[in-house]
Amino acid sequence: MRLPSRLTPGRLLRAMLRGRPWLAAAAMVFGALWLVPGALLPLVVGAAIDGGIAGGDTARLVWLAVLVLGIGVTQAVFGGAMDFLSAGMWMHGASTTQRLVSTHTTRLGASLREQASSGEVLAITSADIDKIGYGFEVIGRVVGSIVAFLTVGIVLLTYSPLLGGVALVGVPLAVAGIGPLIAPLQRKLDTQREELSAVNALGSDIVSGLRILRGIGGERQFLGRFRTASQRVRRAGVDVARSESWLTGAEVLLPGLVTVVITWLGARLAVAGTISVGELVAFYGASAFLVIPVSTTTESTGVWASAYVSARKACRLLSLRPLLAEPSEPVRLPEGPLEPHDAESGFTAVAGKLTVVDVGAGAEELASRLARFTDARRPVLLSGVPVERVALAELRERVVYAHNQDLWFSGVLADEVAPDVPGDVSVETALWAADADDVVAALPDGLAERIGERGREVSGGQRQRLSLARALATDADVLILDEPTSAVDAHTEARISERVATLRRGRTTVVFSQSPLWAAVADEVVTRCS
Question: Rounded to two decimals, what is the model's pTM?
Answer without folding.
Answer: 0.66
